[in-house]
Amino acid sequence: MCIMFIYRNAEAKGDTYRIILASNRDESLKRPTATAHWWKNYPRCLGGVDMEPGKEGGTWLALSTEGRFGALLNLTGEKRSTTTPGEGRGYLVKDYIISDVSADKYLANLYEKNRYEQIYNPFNLILVNLWNTHVSLLCSAENSEGPEKCLDTILGFGNSPTGRPLKKVTLGKERFKNIVQDATILDQDKIIENLIEFLRWNEKHLPDPELESRAPNWYKDLSSVFVHIQDAEYGTRAHSILMVDGSNRLTFVEETLTPDASWKRQTFTTELQIFM
């Protein structure tokens, strides 16, 4: 389970924000992972990297200073038409942010590639153009009609198709909106702390028939924005916050859960390098 919220404002000026994004990564606590860093072979790209044997080099969330952002969310409980093992989905994000292909073309090609053979296990793939706030989504659920544009000011994504949102996504959008609306760069430190607190929101949002149908054995534990299932050694192990202001200044904050159960924070700042 993972969750993501996005605020978009194409009219942002220098002291306001064009994009604010907040996300949790939920994963097995034992899965080997490299925390966010600038990639050696692609120095304009920033993100964590999967180190799971056989899936090394993929990522769940990453960006490039050329204005590309991508994130991958699992579609819990979604059927797949084949029993053959799916290819690693983490490369879907990586391949996009290191490319020079538009989000629309990338998702259209991926849709055609995956729609009949279902090469990958089900996913929501979210691509964001950081300098014009365009957000595009490809949901690989059965009967998906292909890539879609996401035009709302406040967006929320979880582990179900956007047309059938989980309750924690719907309620989370309202709390997220209250944090980011009317935000200015003078408020940045306060916004970051408020978003971290939001991403640690452990209130269970029940009843949720959609979540129960997708995860009948675990839906109670998965019904909060922040997930912690001690017996399964599974839960939220990373918070990510991305902010881009009207002058193309980018701030990326990642907090990761360490083996001693403390949280380690990294903050990266740079400017987008827009080539038009």
UniProtKB/TrEMBL annotation:
Q: Name one GO biological process term.
A: Golgi organization
Q: Which residues form the signal peptide?
A: none
Question: Could you name the Gene Ontology cellular component terms for this entry?
Answer: Golgi apparatus
* InterPro entries tied to this protein: TANGO2 (IPR008551)
What's the name of the protein? Transport and Golgi organization protein 2 isoform X1
- Organism of origin is Neodiprion lecontei
